[in-house]
Recover the amino acids of this structure.
């Protein structure tokens, strides 16, 4: 924004006269500055109308050329030379130097004080600022109405038409979601990434590009880009910011609604997992929320990041699949409700959450339960997730897969079983090592086949009498009653934990 030199020249009370640089009269003056230094350039930033009486300017050609060159280098808009004090007229050498450099040179007559020129410029700038505020106050309601009736596309169109530029709305992957005029595009080189650029302006030979991030709090919805063949005004930037805010609010509406629904769903899930909701009431509530619970429910438990972050990531994955989020934090776990028939969804949601969080998660999935069996489903999911963590597995561990192996899989009981095995089975390990026998292997085969001599001996590839002989030796060494089902069960669990891959000190 600035005062056109032509407007200033038409201000008859100032009686300004053009002496040189008529080709530059389309320039805008952003400030009028009276300065009498021989080299005023260090105190200028460009766009000024420099007012001087030439007090410290020599009339020689070399001095005038150097003076003009310095002003041109810093980008001043024009020079106003006051006559009648230091100089009776503008030095010819200065006129020639300004003409050669294309720098507008204005003669300021003695009756015209510099302060009058400065006042005219300042008042015009103030008027322009006021006009800009009035213009913005008229455009902003139109943009708001456009947002209410036409969404982001209408806001983009209204902004482009109002400020006379091209406008493009980019999503987080830098793909155009809306543009006006249709087909308008932007160069990716000037944009950076959505996370890097909050607001930026770049200028070049092809014009000006302004980028405004579209965001609400930590959520980024994309970027709004204005491309113009001119410098942007403060009003342009004001309207760009207003448009970005409208688009961000438009994008937030469904997310805020979903966040509130997730909060309510989380409160309901807490009641369900506490066992305080009847099956009919649970089924009815879940159905109204768009959750298919007719065939039962499963509970998915995840660990590996903050529970809230995991819930948000899983919620986004479920939303893409058309499922509402029923989730809550449980200690260090994120607990999520899934329909019975959505076993694959558990895997998809977990993988997607891992990708979003950029870290591995340990997940456990309960068996199918009725909606009023929430406490049992929660326990199963937590046990399965604990097993996944103990194994270091990135697969979703289902509770059904732990049938017959749950005690040996849980870290707490597994430790006890391994200690039991190392104590009770040490005599067999020592005997096998000393005599080259296979008592430990024979015991396991015997236990796994529930004491059936034919089946166990067939697996070992020995005669049943040989196996009987070995078992008598085992009884002797362990002083154990192998006819007792409880003893056999205890020994088998201990062996299973002790001889799993990765257990130090296992025997064969």
């Amino acid at each position: 924004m600035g005062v056109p030199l032509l407007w200033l020249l038409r201000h008859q009370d100032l009686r300004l006269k053009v002496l040189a640089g008529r080709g530059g009269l389309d320039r805008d003056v952003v400030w009028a500055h009276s300065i009498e230094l021989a080299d005023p350039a260090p105190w200028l930033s460009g766009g000024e109308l420099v007012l001087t009486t030439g007090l410290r300017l020599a009339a020689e050609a070399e001095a005038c050329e150097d003076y003009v060159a310095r002003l041109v280098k810093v980008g001043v808009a024009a020079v106003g030379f006051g006559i009648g004090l230091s100089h009776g007229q503008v030095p010819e050498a200065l006129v020639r130097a300004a003409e050669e450099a294309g720098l507008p040179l204005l003669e300021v007559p003695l009756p015209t004080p510099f302060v009058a020129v400065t006042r005219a410029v300042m008042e015009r700038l103030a008027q322009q600022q006021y006009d800009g505020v009035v213009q913005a106050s008229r455009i902003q309601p139109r943009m708001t109405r456009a947002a209410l009736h036409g969404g982001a596309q209408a806001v983009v169109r209204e902004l482009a038409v109002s400020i006379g530029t091209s406008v493009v709305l980019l999503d987080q992957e830098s793909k155009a979601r809306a543009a006006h005029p249709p087909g308008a595009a932007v160069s990716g080189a000037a944009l950076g990434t959505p996370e890097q650029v909050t607001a930026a302006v770049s200028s070049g030979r092809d014009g000006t590009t302004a980028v405004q991030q579209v965001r609400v709090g930590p959520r980024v919805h994309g970027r709004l880009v204005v491309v113009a063949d001119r410098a942007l005004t403060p009003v342009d930037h004001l309207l760009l910011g207003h448009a970005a805010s409208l688009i961000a609010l438009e994008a937030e509406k469904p997310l805020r609604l979903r966040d509130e629904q997730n909060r309510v769903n989380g409160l309901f899930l807490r009641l369900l997992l506490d066992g305080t909701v009847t099956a009919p009431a649970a089924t009815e509530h879940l159905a109204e929320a768009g959750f298919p619970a007719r065939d039962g429910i499963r509970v998915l438990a995840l660990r590996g990041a903050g529970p809230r972050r995991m819930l948000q990531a899983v919620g986004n994955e479920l939303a893409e699949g058309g499922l509402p989020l029923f989730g809550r934090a449980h200690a260090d776990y994120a607990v999520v409700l899934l329909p019975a028939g959505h076993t694959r969804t558990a895997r998809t949601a977990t993988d997607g959450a891992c990708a979003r969080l950029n870290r591995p998660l340990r997940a456990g999935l309960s068996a199918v339960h009725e909606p009023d069996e929430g406490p049992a489903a929660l326990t199963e999911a937590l046990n399965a997730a604990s097993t996944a963590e103990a194994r270091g597995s990135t697969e979703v561990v289902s509770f059904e897969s732990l049938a017959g192996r749950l005690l040996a899989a849980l870290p707490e009981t597994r430790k006890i079983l391994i200690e039991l095995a190392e104590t009770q089975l040490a005599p067999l390990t020592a005997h096998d090592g000393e005599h080259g026998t296979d008592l430990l292997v024979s015991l396991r085969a015997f236990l796994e086949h529930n004491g059936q001599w034919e089946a166990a001996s067939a697996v070992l590839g020995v005669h049943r009498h040989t196996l009987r002989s070995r078992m008598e030796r085992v009884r002797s060494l362990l002083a154990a009653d192998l006819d007792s089902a409880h003893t056999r069960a205890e020994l088998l669990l201990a062996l299973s934990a002790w001889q799993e891959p990765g257990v130090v000190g296992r025997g064969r």
Summary: Confidence is low (pLDDT under 50) at residues 500-508.
